[in-house]
Amino acid sequence: MPEHAPFAGCAVVVVNYASAALLEQNLTRLSRAADGLIVVVVDNASTPDERGELTRIAHAEGWETVLPDTNLGFGLGVNAGVAHAAERGAQRFLLLNPDAVIEPVDAERLFAAVAAHRLTLVSPRVLRPDGSTWFAGADVSLVDGRMSSAAKRPQPAARRAEPWLSGACLAVSAELWDRVGGFADDYFLYWEDVDLSHRVLASGGELAVLDDAVCVHAEGGTQQTGEAHASPAKSNGYYYFNIRNRLLFAARNLSTDDLLAWQRTANAVAWEILLQGGRRQFLHSLRPFSAALRALRDGRRIVRDELAARSGGAAPAEPDSARNAS
Length: 326
Hints:
InterPro entries: Glyco_trans_2-like, Nucleotide-diphossugar_trans. This protein has 2 domains: 10-217, Spore Coat Polysaccharide Biosynthesis Protein SpsA, Chain A (Alpha-Beta Complex), CATH 3.90.550; 236-324, no CATH class.
């Protein structure tokens, strides 16, 4: 083995869903320049043509693939990819979105950070294609579940909040991953990174944003073609899972008083989430409202079942509609 082999024992894990062209554009530069890096792509039941294109690219680039028969969602897809990489001997993992681009030097810095601090979950600064900051740390309010940038964090903290890191690009050691058990299996999409961050902190681990490492994230690139920011409109799946999973996170992780407080603000926060797509979207379709109503219904069912379980009532039921939101 070369004396300096920064990518030995390292793996990049990407979950693909109809984004093979993005992977060919974004991931090849890293994989070609990082000698010894294991690249694992999990294909979440794309179309036969898409899967065929992905396997063609993977074969040409030397990537490894995990090909489940069903769409596992983001979190379980990552879990499957990490498990595959661990079987190949990886001890450090970089979890990367298909629409994110990271240079080899920045990936090397992230891998070095988790090698030196094995119980720390690490994110780079995440930039938009225009160079503006997309993510450099964030907080979730434990009072009402609203999100805010870490840059707006009061000093000293004037409210109850907890930091979290975005799943767009995360580095983690095998030791920390095994300690927390990877991503939870019931979020499917969105909020699984908030939940992971919470469990890292609860386990005695730490979160860190590495300022001297950056990646570029064209948010929404896996859901649309053309310029990523041509329209603020979001998918119905975005609305459904962000609204439902906010209450799922609260039910799984918060005290009863906080859970009830999050439930009381559910309608207001759902409206705020819908407005992230702009008001003009409502001129074209009412489907965002439908997605929000289903999310509120299913989220409240999760809360109801969790409260019943805490009081000795019926066991929590599996949430409905989760796989039919998009």
